[in-house]
Design the sequence.
């Protein structure tokens, strides 16, 4: 085959375009294969480990190897051996799943040899010692978790959660929002959730689905009005917070791990569907929008909120994308404009109305607000990890200037954050 005839990806890089099965084995051209992990994506170490672990948990070691291989290619010299070894372990697991015991043993041994030098001071919390012990035992048992952290799905907490995230982009979204401490940010959006539920006129006994519900702000607001609530999110740990908050208030609602792009419910299952700055981060906006409408019964109401692009929340998302134009799932700013929502939802199935509302964000100072976002808010944290020192300084300085320009009065910082509220009625 001439070089000019080689398969290439959208960026022009050589990449075999033959479809592959779930274990990476080539299928004939034209066959329906598994979606492959995007190649050449730069992820923070934490995000790469979380995404690879999610794929291993889902029984997709070949796809986990692709994520770890990207991390190996972009790693600094002193960390390349670690990432190469982790990728080799994933390839070994792939061979084992294919029934190639000899190839599996060889790759697992190579991977263990590459990661073992990092055992004294494991980077990023990688369970080097546990992985090496597992490899020394021949890799005959399921491997320990890459970081020794709890799984995305703790069986004690996820009974009845039946919708694993399997569509393209879902694992990236889940990995991103597993970073930071979203509960500390999300609780500041309680007024927006209360306002949305009130404006929707949620009534006792109505079946309400909250999509991208995070730590439960909107689900709690609806449960206080005696609705029959299901709270979904792609990150199980966030739903753990939601359940604990409900228990503290003596409320109850169902939780289910679900991808907004493939909701596990029948058509027309709910009287009300909500999402408060949640579905906006779904990787495929069109698919997620269609799912919101699909599960809503005729005559039912849809309510969602999104940051207005010109407001501080929207400006922050734009700031992240400009300083770190890498792997940012979703199209959140599109959902924050009337034209964008009309494109996504205004296809004759919904009668839409719009309102701009404001929720105040406070902090003792702009610098404290920056530190909070850096520690708690996944997009900021992930971007920071990918930037060099010069990029980090520019990122911080622009945030300080931008956020401070919106503050009203003293003492401290009070920033009115404007969001678009959308309410629709299914025709």
Sequence:
């Amino acid at each position: 085959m001439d070089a000019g005839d080689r398969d290439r990806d959208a960026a022009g890089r050589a990449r075999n375009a033959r479809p592959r099965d779930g274990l990476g084995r080539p299928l004939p051209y034209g066959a329906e294969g598994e979606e492959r992990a995007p190649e050449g994506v730069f992820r923070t170490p934490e995000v790469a480990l979380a995404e690879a672990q999610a794929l291993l948990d889902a029984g997709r070691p070949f796809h986990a190897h692709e994520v770890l291989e990207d991390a190996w290619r972009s790693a600094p010299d002193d960390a390349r051996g670690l990432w190469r070894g982790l990728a080799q372990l994933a390839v070994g697991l792939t061979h084992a799943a294919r029934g190639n015991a000899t190839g599996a043993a060889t790759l697992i041994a190579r991977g263990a040899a590459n990661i073992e030098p990092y055992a004294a001071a494991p980077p990023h919390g990688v369970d080097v010692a546990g992985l090496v012990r597992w490899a020394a035992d021949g890799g005959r048992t399921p491997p320990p978790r890459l970081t020794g952290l709890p799984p995305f799905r703790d069986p004690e907490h996820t009974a009845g959660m039946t919708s694993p995230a399997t569509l393209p982009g879902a694992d990236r979204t889940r990995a991103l929002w597993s970073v930071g401490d979203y509960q500390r940010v999300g609780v500041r959006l309680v007024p927006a959730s209360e306002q949305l539920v009130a404006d929707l006129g949620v009534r006792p006994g109505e079946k309400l689905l909250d999509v991208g519900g995070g730590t439960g702000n909107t689900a709690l607001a609806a449960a206080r009005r005696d609705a029959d609530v299901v709270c979904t999110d792609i990150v199980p740990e966030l739903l753990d917070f939601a359940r604990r908050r409900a228990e503290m208030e003596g409320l109850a609602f169902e939780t289910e791990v679900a991808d907004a792009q493939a909701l596990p419910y029948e058509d027309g299952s709910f009287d009300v569907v909500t999402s408060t700055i949640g579905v906006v981060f779904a990787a495929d906006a069109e698919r997620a929008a269609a799912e919101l409408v699909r599960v809503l019964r005729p005559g039912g109401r849809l309510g969602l909120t999104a940051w207005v692009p010109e407001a501080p929340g929207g400006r922050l998302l734009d700031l992240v994308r400009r300083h770190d134009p890498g792997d940012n799932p979703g199209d959140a700013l599109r959902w924050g404009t009337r034209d964008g929502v009309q494109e996504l939802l205004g296809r004759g199935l919904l009668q839409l109305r719009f309102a701009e509302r404001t929720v105040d964000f406070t902090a003792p100072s702009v610098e404290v607000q920056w530190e909070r976002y850096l520690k708690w808010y996944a997009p900021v944290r992930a971007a920071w990890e990918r930037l060099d020192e010069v990029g980090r300084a520019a990122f911080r300085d622009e945030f300080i200037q931008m956020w401070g320009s919106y503050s009203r009065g003293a003492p401290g910082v009070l920033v009115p954050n404007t969001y678009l509220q959308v309410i629709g009625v299914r025709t």
